[in-house]
Automatic annotation (TrEMBL):
Keywords: Hydrolase. InterPro entries: Aliph_Amidase/BUP, C-N_Hydrolase, C-N_Hydrolase_sf. It comes from Jannaschia seohaensis. Pfam families: CN_hydrolase. CDD domains: DCase. PANTHER family: NITRILASE C965.09-RELATED (PTHR43674). This is Predicted amidohydrolase. Gene3D superfamilies: Carbon-nitrogen hydrolase. The keyword Phosphoprotein does not apply.
Length: 308
């Protein structure tokens, strides 16, 4: 048995005015809870250090850049790295990354138990739009503030398992799980900021959005025989509600832990990485059963083309 005790550290809302130092205090409180529950790994959400700023239209580059981190760890996050190292806890969290070349990414990092960053992922599937959209109930400007990730979907050996990451909207795309599945992934972690209502469809509310989120993650887990841990930033951020619904999914696609609130809340499960072996060697033994000669459209064509 290769057991990893995983804490999904859902975070409640972060208001625009809340400084990173205050947010890190909240993350430290969740980390302490996780340590008390003997977690080996704690998973925090997408853009964990700030409010979900892509909902705000900004034109001044200095104002935009204020939401980004130019180094990691930095002064605000160092206490989190220090405490994770002291307690021997691996962590993963998302943040807005500005590179030394001035590139902007929606990023997440993964540490080992010694607090060293061993993995970085940059969000590939950026939802939303890049221009102000008067048709929407609220803006979702990820395509304005970030460029698509350039690192693909790597996996890393950590805590004696193969781990990979994706971020929020990525979880809705089966290609994401399969890219990592083809590298033997056993645990996929992801954070999300998902509005509780659809900005383009006012009667699509919480129930349907929670269902689609869970459907995507449970399918990805089952079809790749891996654990999936999806962690929300939830609650009302300056009048904009985000859904909760953080879950831990086993390699059979069953939800084994689920958040009950829209606030700071830790969900915990002891995840046996060897539970992936059966699916990976039977129904989803890719080497035996995949028929790649029929899959060429997946990498040669982006949109729908109906036959002539
Ligand atoms: N942060 C996100 O990527 N949110 C999207 C919303 C816009 C649908 C999501 O897929 O949850």
């Amino acid at each position: 048995m290769r057991e990893i005790v995983i804490g999904g550290a859902q975070m409640g809302p972060i208001q625009k005015a809340e400084p990173r130092t205050a947010v890190v205090e909240r993350m430290l409180a969740l980390l302490e809870q996780a340590v008390a529950e003997k977690c080996d790994l704690v998973v925090f959400p997408e853009l964990a250090l700030t409010t979900f700023f892509p909902r705000w239209w900004m034109e001044d580059q200095a104002e935009i850049d204020a939401w980004f981190e130019t180094e990691m760890p930095n002064a605000a996050t160092q206490p989190l790295f220090d405490r994770a190292r002291e307690t021997g806890t691996a962590i993963t969290f998302g943040y807005a990354e500005k590179t030394p070349e001035g590139r902007h990414f929606n990023t997440s990092i993964l540490t080992d138990k010694q607090g060293a960053i061993i993995g970085k992922y940059r969000k590939v599937h950026l939802p939303g739009h890049s221009e102000y959209d008067t048709e929407r109930a609220f803006q979702h400007l990820e395509k304005k503030y970030f460029e698509p990730g350039d690192l693909g979907f790597p996996v890393w050996r950590n805590l004696d398992a193969w781990m990979g990451m994706c971020i929020c909207n990525d979880r809705r795309w089966p290609e994401v799980y399969r890219e990592m599945g083809l590298q033997g992934v056993e645990l996929i972690t992801l954070g999300y900021n998902t509005p509780s209502v659809n900005s383009q469809l006012s009667d699509e509310g919480l129930e349907k959005r929670l269902y689609h989120s869970e459907l995507s993650m449970t399918a990805g887990a089952y079809q790749n025989a891996c654990w999936v841990v999806g962690v929300a930033k939830a609650g009302d951020e300056d009048g904009h509600p985000l859904m909760g619904g953080s879950i831990i999914v086993d390699p059979d696609g069953f939800v084994v832990a689920r958040a009950q609130t829209e606030g700071d809340e830790l969900i915990v499960h002891a995840c046996d990485m060897d539970a992936c072996n059966f699916g990976k060697t039977t129904i989803f033994d890719f080497a035996r059963h995949r028929r790649i000669e029929h899959y060429s459209r997946i990498t040669s064509q982006t949109g729908v083309v109906t036959p002539e």
